[in-house]
């Protein structure tokens, strides 16, 4: 979970650490448009996350049964183990349950993007837009096969999916189209049920179909293919570059516009199994762990406390919140000295992300809390990245505050 930092004006003059706010009608218009866009997107995501959680947990349990309880080799599939004849009695029953849970859990993952599109459209155009949004979101991951000539014969060919990008576009188009129809089409009260339950849903579904088949899927599929080919061409360098950008953007403003933009991109890549979300999940909690750890090791590191009693208590809480995947614990530290602390967040998040990714940590499930750690491939590498980034933040902040104390620029009660 990433939280926005709000710098509160206490009457002092604005420092160079605080970015200027756009002024005038243009700035207000841009701010309003972003807030509306963000509100609708976050509504869709809030309905999608429970589906991802259910699918992820059931899918994880399906893997724990064979590979932990039964000691199967990671290279062997559940179905191959069933057909091997090595298992009998209760072991066969456990493998059957695991196979069902695996299929069910990863089927739930397939409903995440349609749910996102449905409730994003619903947020914009009301409940009459929900069905068309779901249809568009489903077609975004399961494109409609179109007739095409293959070796001189007509055949139904499924194009490359537009994925999360296509779901965002169709959700907004359908949502605003339904809102426009609701405001424009005037019918007698006796025809209201016909309008809301039949006419508008039918027209919006047809519009969603036409747009997805002839416009959004071709363009979105082309973009997805381009991205995949670019990543394949870049190899490990592309992976590290993506992890660096994602970690920096996530830690930069803790829930602000940059963070949200990074989240949209990362969520799209991970739900489509293009790129894992490892770097973002690490970057969400590294600031909380780092700043919390700095309140624990300061006396051991420099021989004195560099935080007052209140910050020491907040630091302990920050560590606990980090285990819950929550970044609120790092906010008070950033509010106190944003010009120094926020760049340290960013660098620490990058260090941790690159450490984890380079050592082989892979996380597809978009959650940073400790209960999601069993879903991570190569958890030791993930923990090394988490510890490395947190230690950088902790040590840097302790020595920085100690220097301020020595110069008389900081007093610790």
TrEMBL record:
Biased composition (Polar residues): 10-19
PROSITE patterns registered for this protein in UniProt: PTS_EIIC_TYPE_2
Membrane topology reported for the UniProt record: Multi-pass membrane protein
Chief subcellular location: membrane
Origin superkingdom: Bacteria
Membrane-spanning residues: 45-70, 90-117, 129-150, 156-178, 198-219, 239-256, 277-297, 317-335, 342-365, 371-400
Region of interest: Disordered: 9-31
Localization per record: Cell membrane
Pfam families to which the protein is assigned, alphabetical: PTS_EIIC
Annotated PTS EIIC type-2 domain residues: 37-399
Keywords (A to Z) from UniProt: Cell membrane, Membrane, Phosphotransferase system, Sugar transport, Transmembrane, Transmembrane helix, Transport
Protein name: PTS fructose transporter subunit IIC
Lineage summary: Bacteria, Pseudomonadati, Pseudomonadota, Gammaproteobacteria, Enterobacterales
């Amino acid at each position: 979970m990433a939280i926005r930092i709000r710098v509160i004006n206490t009457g002092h003059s604005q420092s160079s650490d605080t970015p200027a706010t756009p002024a005038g009608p243009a700035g207000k218009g841009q701010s309003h448009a972003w807030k509306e866009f963000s509100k609708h997107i976050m509504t869709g995501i809030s309905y999608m996350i429970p589906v991802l959680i259910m699918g992820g947990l059931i899918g994880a349990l399906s893997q724990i049964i064979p590979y932990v309880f039964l000691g199967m080799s990671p290279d062997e599939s559940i179905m191959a183990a069933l057909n091997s004849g090595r298992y009998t009695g209760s072991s066969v029953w456990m493998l059957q349950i695991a196979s069902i849970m695996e299929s069910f859990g990863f089927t739930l993952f397939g409903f995440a993007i349609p749910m996102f599109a449905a409730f994003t459209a619903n947020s914009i155009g009301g409940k009459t837009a929900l069905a068309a949004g779901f249809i568009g979101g489903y077609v975004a991951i399961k494109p409609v096969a179109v007739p095409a000539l293959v070796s001189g014969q007509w055949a139904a060919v499924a194009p490359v999916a537009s994925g999360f990008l296509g779901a965002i576009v169709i959700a907004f188009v359908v949502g605003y189209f339904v809102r426009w129809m609701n405001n424009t089409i005037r019918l007698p009260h006796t025809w209201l049920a016909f309008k809301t339950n039949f006419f508008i849903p039918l027209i919006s579904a047809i519009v969603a179909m036409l747009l997805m088949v002839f416009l959004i899927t071709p363009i979105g599929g082309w973009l997805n293919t381009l991205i995949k080919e670019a990543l394949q061409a870049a190899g490990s360098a592309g992976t590290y570059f993506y992890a660096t950008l994602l970690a920096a953007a996530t830690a930069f403003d803790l829930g602000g516009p940059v963070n949200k933009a990074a989240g949209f991109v990362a969520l799209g890549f991970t739900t489509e199994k293009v790129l894992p979300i490892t770097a973002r999940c690490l970057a969400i909690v590294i600031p909380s762990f780092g700043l919390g750890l700095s309140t624990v090791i300061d006396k051991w590191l420099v021989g004195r406390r560099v935080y007052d009693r209140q910050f020491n208590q907040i630091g302990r809480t920050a560590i606990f919140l980090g285990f819950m995947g929550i970044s609120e614990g790092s906010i008070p530290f950033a509010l106190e000295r944003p010009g120094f602390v926020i760049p340290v967040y960013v660098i620490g998040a990058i260090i941790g992300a690159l450490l984890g990714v380079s050592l082989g940590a892979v996380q597809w499930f978009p959650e940073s809390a400790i209960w999601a750690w069993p879903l991570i491939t190569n958890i030791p590498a993930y923990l090394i990245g988490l510890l490395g980034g947190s230690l950088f933040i902790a040590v840097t902040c302790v020595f920085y505050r100690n220097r301020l104390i020595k110069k008389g620029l900081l007093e610790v009660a």
